[in-house]
């Protein structure tokens, strides 16, 4: 009988012998490869935390003890161990989320997939436990070495170090990588700890001792008892964690079940803030992941399990257009530099780094630093291009507002994954940037409708040296090119007319505005309205903030503006246009269509577009008839 099928409860897990645990680890790896190759997902990270997740659930008693996963993309094994083994609809509607989800399990806590938050979550939970006198409860934060490069992690560690009586265990899941090898001084320090003399000695001694081990059932006790007497002289050299005042245990081989369990048992018994440094391997046990140079299968699409090759071709057309154009620009403009927050390949800066390694900077998962560093680079005469997923820019709003915009710094933000991303969870939809940018003085925002426009607007952004510019585009493959029938105005003021129709005498005059990927939707809406005899003009404003005077004039001349955007409907660009028209005393009605702000369960982009009433049919039905 397979260990996985035996696993009907955590108690069964806790009674497993070392050999059963090893078999279970293998089965879980096979399960992960088989399941995730069918659906896509975070295969590499989860292959790396099989033994760690098992040990966490054997040593700690979730949900009494709280397990918090940073980013949460590495929680598939935790899900399997807590009774969720149907991965057939992973990240799909009706299936399990790719991140912890409270609606799925009492064992899941943090649904936010933005990195570097786990230590703050854990510190707050542990503080609450202390206040409530729940002194028998541990809080465990599992954080990757990449997430540890995020500033919030250090804000939390600074506080945690001061809370001696807090039962808080920080587990660093150190696989040496974010997507790529983790950058910076911290990564070097972790390396130093990892190769510390004590680590080898710790392991050899641990294995020797445990060869004489006790009964399998008492493995953790034997590990603890057997290794305790020698542990004092194998703790890794003083590191900044100890200097901060946080006890450090490790480094520990994260794929050695006994060593991990022993270390976690010690940490649990410590009774104060303690950090366990666990060394793991991203993609462990699946050679196509282990051999994948770029990111060890950090996030894969549907793949052939036997080869690791994608079933469908690359799905990131917009990113490829930017990547290619960035290299062309860099060849011509020495002042242009690229910045990424630990996502070199996903945002398309790898080709530029290939050719100009000194002009692409990876700052780790540190978007706030990236933005203010860009302000510094601009002050120094460069034109920085920060390529980032739209949702992750949220974190650097203050830096954008008061370090970049306040100083009118010529920084260009290239926002990938803007709008509804769908299956990657609620906090991954790039839905907030347009509304946020309404509050940023002086920023110019563009929303290209196809690849040609992305290139054109990227160049226009780079030509702007009087302040920040932002170009945002969706996840996935490129749409058909959508040429304009004619354009009105020049430069930022230019508005592209995509279609127009003269209606019947006295019919309603409708201006349909489709931003970016909703331009084709706007054309479809216009066609239906024209078919009913209404006067229709369908436009793409290209640069959407500040509003172009041409667009304002077109809108003022209409009875109704239908405005469709891949962003928040409350407070979005359509809302802003409505406010602007009202300020001018215009009687034009504005019907805004976009994303509602309440967060959503996992579903595909197509499903969410249906849900939000963003199909042409739904929009036409909503704006009614002229009658
Ligand atoms: C604020 C933020 N920026 C970027 C990302 C994208 N991202 C997701 S996982 C990841 C790498 C995480 O590395 P690490 O914490 O070491 O976890 P591992 O994948 O190695 O287990 C990144 C950059 C994110 N989720 N949140
Ligand atoms: C967890 C995380 O933030 C990233 O791994 C993200 O899920 C990648 O998204 P894409 O798959 O759209 O590149
Ligand atoms: Mg890592």
UniProtKB/TrEMBL annotation:
Q: Which residues form the Transketolase-like pyrimidine-binding domain?
A: 316-480
| Enzyme's top EC category | transferase
Protein residues bound to Mg(2+): 145, 175
Positions that bind thiamine diphosphate: 73, 113-115, 146-147, 175, 286, 367
GO MF term list: 1-deoxy-D-xylulose-5-phosphate synthase activity; magnesium ion binding; thiamine pyrophosphate binding
Read off the SUPFAM superfamilies from this record.
Answer: Thiamin diphosphate-binding fold (THDP-binding), TK C-terminal domain-like
Q: PROSITE patterns per the record?
A: TRANSKETOLASE_1, TRANSKETOLASE_2
Any Pfam family matching the protein: DXP_synthase_N
| Cofactor requirement | Mg(2+); thiamine diphosphate
Q: Does the keyword Metal-binding apply?
A: yes
Q: Which UniProt keywords apply?
A: Isoprene biosynthesis, Magnesium, Metal-binding, Thiamine biosynthesis, Thiamine pyrophosphate, Transferase
Cofactor-binding details, from the entry: Binds 1 Mg(2+) ion per subunit.
What catalytic activity does the UniProt entry give for this protein? D-glyceraldehyde 3-phosphate + pyruvate + H(+) = 1-deoxy-D-xylulose 5-phosphate + CO2
EC number(s) of the enzyme?
A: 2.2.1.7
Gene Ontology biological-process annotations: isopentenyl diphosphate biosynthetic process, methylerythritol 4-phosphate pathway; terpenoid biosynthetic process; thiamine biosynthetic process
Concerning Gene3D superfamilies, the annotation shows: 3.40.50.920, 3.40.50.970
A GO cellular component annotation in the UniProt record: cytosol
**Which residues does UniProt call coiled coil?**
none
Role noted for this protein:
Catalyzes the acyloin condensation reaction between C atoms 2 and 3 of pyruvate and glyceraldehyde 3-phosphate to yield 1-deoxy-D-xylulose-5-phosphate (DXP).
Subunit comment for this entry?
Homodimer.
Please state what the protein is called: 1-deoxy-D-xylulose-5-phosphate synthase
| Species of provenance | Bowdeniella nasicola
